[in-house]
Design goal:
The chain has helices at 13-40, 70-90, 97-119, 139-167; strands at residues 51-58, 123-129. It is mainly alpha-helical and 168 residues long. The chain has one domain (13-161). The chain has a two-stranded antiparallel sheet with strand order 1-2. It is globular, with a radius of gyration of 18 Å. The model has no long low-confidence stretch (mean pLDDT 90).
Amino acid sequence: MLFLNQKRQRMSRTSKIVYFIISIIFFTCFDLVLSDFVIKNIENFPQNSVLDLISVQNTGAAFSILQDARVFLICFSVAAILWIVFYTIKSIEKSSTLTLFWVSMLVSGIFCNLYERIVLGYVRDFFKLNFVNFPVFNISDIFINVSVFAIVVIIIKHNFSKNNEADN
């Protein structure tokens, strides 16, 4: 990514690529293992007023849009992953490890939903917020949303810093 080039984080191109790949593998394993554990033990978790764990088979995308558009969602996910990985590798010298961390979390979230959609035919959602009317979601959804937010903050911070340098 072309943003957040921090001078204190000097890593070689190869080291950054290895870090990026290992981060993707870590987040993917964490997501898949924890999701399996939750789904297999869902009845053992106590329910409360904030969060319930329920098993929902989501054949659509976020907020259950595009129900039964499996082929489109698979193609879109593959294209998104390829584009993000290609762009990240292409600009990896200018990327900080913090940026690579968030981008790897994003790729992992997209990949895990893609994996479930291909293998199971649906995405397993299980977190239900009780204090607000909100769709049931999963760990991949958290990864995607948190990482996109963090990347947007990084871009804004970078652009703000660049504008301040130009003004001086």
